[in-house]
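Quick one: co-fold with adenosine-5'-diphosphate.
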Amino acid sequence: MALLSVQNLVTEFHGPGGTARAVDGVSFDVNAGEIFGIVGESGCGKSATCRSIVRLFGGADARIAGGSVRLDGSGDLATLPERELARIRGRDVAFIFQDPLTALNPTMRIGRQIAEVVERHRRVSRREARAIALQLLRDVHVTSPERRLDAWPHELSGGLRQRVVIAMALALRPRLIIADEPTTALDVTVQDQILRLLLERCAATGTAIILVTHDLGVVAEICDRVAVMYGGRFVETGSTATVLASPRHPYTRALLSALPSRAMRGKPLAPIEGTPPSLTAPPPGCRFAPRCPQAAEVCRAGPPPPLMLHDRAAPLHADACLLEGVR
Ligand SMILES: Nc1ncnc2c1ncn2[C@@H]1O[C@H](COP(=O)(O)OP(=O)(O)O)[C@@H](O)[C@H]1O
Ligand SMILES: [Mg+2]
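Sure, here it is.
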């Protein structure tokens, strides 16, 4: 049975410009210990999908308008009372955001912050919590961990801060870590180290990861399965190897051709023409149709096509394109 099962999720953001359906009927499963990637251009609903899982909308006027989010052993997180959901956040599901500074309290020393997370969920003394915090800093390979316990967040580099955030996420041995572009805000030189660290620690504890990225190269290297998101919907999903070797949806193909390959190094990327659709007033039919080089009349008529299985040899590979004959 899946660790996490998301069915027909619909999430809406309310703003002065109207209601944006940032997630519009998304379904997926994540198995224990699995690394599940979500990839797509900026603004397509990746963060909204992640935030919906534990209803962490950061003050935005957002709500889950439909669907269910089942975590093995818990009720439907989409409708669970806030008090019970608060217990699940951190204990079963931890979140790592793009910017480590937003996750840290600037007025509290590093050691105390990690210890507080531990104390909140486990019956330990302050001393024990501090010892656990020290061990966690060691686990994430922070050098001079004893000294760092007493450091303030602003005294650390971005990479070190994200290590601390990972230590806090791991503190309670969650079953799932949702990492939303965890390295985007960091120097290129440390991005790889941080990703590797996250993988190493999750492999050691059997923790599953939902990894959001706009980088298909990262997906290729790290993820077991991947979902390609466009305009609030998943347009293709399957094992990473299958999706990258035999992409079906024209949007996945466009993303892949924008990817720098060895042969292309130094040459400009092929950008995808046009802009992503508005989620307040999305186009009818396939949301990629206005930018799709192969779009036909049927693609522009509503409703948007559902994810469909095509290939019996790769039964978990599905895509949402109507133009079977074209491909
Ligand atoms: N705080 C917010 N207030 C209003 N609308 C939002 C907010 N955050 C996201 N949205 C809407 O949700 C859409 C998807 O955003 P997001 O999930 O952050 O995209 P991604 O993570 O893929 O870049 C946005 O295009 C916007 O329409
Ligand atoms: Mg995002």
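If it helps, The chain is about 35% helix and 20% strand.
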